Amino acid sequence: MKTYTCGCGNTLFFENSYCVQCQRPVGWCPGCDRVTALLDLGNNNYQCAHSDCQTRLTKCHNYQVHQVCNRCIRSTEINSSQALCDYCQYTEIIPDLSVPGNRQRWYELEVAKQRLLYTLEALQLPFGTATAGFDPPLSFDFKGDIILKDALWRTLGKGQRVFTGHADGKITINICEADDEVREQLRVDFNEAQRTLVGHFHHEIGHYYWQLLVTEDWLDQFKHVFGNHENPPYGDTLDHYYESGPPENWQQYYVSPYATMHPWEDFAETFATYLDMASVLHTAAHHQGSKGTLYLQTTPFDDMIAAYRQLGILLNELNRTLGLIDFIPEIFTPAVIKKLRFIHDLVRSAQKTVIRNFSDCWSTA
Ligand SMILES: [Zn+2]
Ligand SMILES: [Zn+2]
Ligand SMILES: [Zn+2]
Ligand SMILES: [Zn+2]
Description:
Layout: E1 4-5, E2 11-12, E3 26-29, E4 34-42, E5 45-48, E6 56-59, H1 61-64, E7 72-74, E8 91-93, H2 102-122, E9 139-143, E10 165-167, E11 170-174, H3 180-189, H4 197-213, H5 216-226, H6 234-244, H7 263-287, H8 292-298, H9 301-321, H10 334-350
Parallel strand pairs: 8-9, 9-11
Antiparallel strand pairs: 1-2, 3-4, 4-5, 5-6, 6-7, 10-11
Helix pairs in contact: 2-4, 4-7, 5-10, 7-8, 7-9, 7-10
Bound molecules: zinc ion (4 copies).
């Protein structure tokens, strides 16, 4: 992820909606693909403050009304008073905002989702909405368990509990994952090295890309690297995993214990690790003065792994210095590298043919 610069000279970050130094509103400008200060023209009309852009903008409805987004739309493209930005269009179900705390949970989820979509764009991976005719369309539901007010004592029945997962392009996240104490408890219960909202999105989108990209041409190679996804069936492996746990030597072959459950989960966990690596290297490249997006699109796999390993030693040691959990918990054994290389080849072959270099068009401070 890049950082951006306000007209006043202050550094702006991807999630910012105002500048703490000059107090101006701030938002994502689709005219120059930057987070920028917004010149207020009144009545939800703004102008990108960069003199080389000056695009007329309107805040996304979710920015203007709910403050869960910081993106703008070109004023010429506004067709309704409730127009949503390019990223908010992907969210189909939002949390019940009459429940206290749900607006904040929704905000946390949107921030993580926006980081995901940014990374997918940087990697030039294809995705699209149903409206745009994309098949399978990508969409998100952010829902909470339904607890009936007069029946709190009841165990939640089927249909009331929301399971985080992916089905046919739809990524559902249980909004309780936005609560730090719930997520941390689940991390400990499931013996996970890390559990974050960004991590959930990186995993679930892996299932989406399995469906979208692992076509006939790739299936034999997929089975060779990850195993046969048809035998034993998914349901059997799920039961077995929760009864017996991962095999003892799982770190030799897998990025996480959960990846041992089934080839589909192995693929999603490895895909998530690849997105972790891509987004970290993109950020590092930017802060070291090079173009992160170009780096992701052109750097050979072996060089990416070497850079990530080197960075990982520093980042893990920095975290340990402060007593934090490891920044990069995965161990890159030959078997894990083989799986990551498969993902890398798949991603590179899927890259959109039109090179947009969306975030490298402009210099940054
Ligand atoms: Zn400023
Ligand atoms: Zn602009
Ligand atoms: Zn939006
Ligand atoms: Zn999964």
